[in-house]
């Protein structure tokens, strides 16, 4: 069979040439036409499929340090949907908004607004392990409105909590890491976009909030502003600023019933979080101080101001106490001195900016029925508990045992209404669960996307009643893949903690209910691992626990045996009174609580994901 006729006419060649050219043009035009799954913004009809929630949006947070991006949102628990409104102060060629496990730009769930040079598009997208962006075949973000206003360009859209799309982020209880980016040039195709090549950032929020109305404040409520006046924010990225506030002398007992942030206008994107601590009543005098919390020359007595009164983080709302309870302030047994700690996040290294931010306490002299209290759950601050190096996931658990709650709680128990989770830099998740009769009864608080950079007091959706004889287990998840040495427990930021500060009523004498593995069993572990690795000259007991951990030969076996030890060995209990003394009883070599039934949470029908409820 002849493929080419040597007598082919010029006319035939011409026809073949233009046919091939036409086919090439069709291919090129098709590659540049509008993405089939995206929404062309100019063709949007202002008729949403469902009625809009009441505006303005009740929750909002600035995303970037310049305040160019602001995210606001509302929640429909009835429809399991979240409405988002994104304001872009100066829109150029587009913007990226997304969510990922810990704020990574890779493997992120995205929504993108971009222009091709002639038209603008909106679409659900995702990034791969290299940060390359692709349009999602399943479009789960529904664009409701897009318009230019005097304050900037506004996008209003919604999506379900769970989309049943494996490329999408599951919106659930706890911290949500919001990533954002700005597009400075048109995109002929979304596949041209790589997040590693544009200006991006991350912000953290609690996306799902209780939808119950706040309690009414009493008519005789008074306010007290605990602020650091006229601070010149240092021209560095991270600053922790400490300030000592003195309460009036001989202040009678009051109840704090609400508190909220007081942010100096213009600094909303720099003031990252704020905490107020009460100093120990045993310290009769704390010197005045306004300066860096990390200053080595700061007064040593600031270290005795550790009792949390209030905590706020960017995007948090005002915090209300339940109608029957208030947090005591003033009166016998309290301290006159409060330590304010303000975290400034200044990545743009802005200089000369003055700030007087802090916390406004709302208090009443009309005491409520119950004093509220704060109790520490989890692990004791000790190097006895450690996380091996190079771990993708490692768990540590702290126990508040039935023996301690039976000893210290009143017959009707206590009622937990809020909590503040806490780890240091290696922490990735925290979960506190209530166990009764060997069965997990309910989750007190859980955050599987936890970040030490976003710690605030979180109101529980449902008040949890803890009875005498109940067990509270706080389990923390850690990642040490970037560390070559073991991470021990302690106060240093490179050491670790596993804590849940629960807020409850009525206040009891039980202030700390925590544990650590029995030290004698840990020494047996050191002996065994050293001998296993051929080191018969173990110095166990002769040097510190921290040094013993660092001298071990760490491999998969050493980590697995340590994990087994923590999950089987007896524990030492710290069942402490407010005086820091143990309650009477034997608290050493206590058996681990037995859990025979694990709590099953409600699931989304499509993917087995937890189902949030109001």
Automatic annotation (TrEMBL):
Signal peptide: none
Any single Gene Ontology cellular-component annotation: chromaffin granule membrane
Pathway: Catecholamine biosynthesis; (R)-noradrenaline biosynthesis; (R)-noradrenaline from dopamine: step 1/1
Pfam families reported for this sequence: Cu2_monoox_C (PF03712), Cu2_monooxygen (PF01082), DOMON (PF03351)
Gene3D superfamilies per the UniProt record, alphabetical: 2.60.120.230, Copper type II, ascorbate-dependent monooxygenase, N-terminal domain (2.60.120.310)
Record InterPro entries: Cu2_ascorb_mOase-like_C, Cu2_ascorb_mOase_CS-2, Cu2_ascorb_mOase_N, Cu2_ascorb_mOase_N_sf, Cu2_monoox_C, DBH-like, DOH_DOMON, DOMON_domain
The protein's Enzyme Commission number: 1.14.17.1
Residue stretches making up the DOMON domain: 67-183
Domain of life of the source: Eukaryota
Subunit structure: Homotetramer; composed of two disulfide-linked dimers.
Role summary: Catalyzes the hydroxylation of dopamine to noradrenaline (also known as norepinephrine), and is thus vital for regulation of these neurotransmitters.
Name of the protein in question: Dopamine beta-hydroxylase
Organism: Amphiprion ocellaris
Gene field: DBH
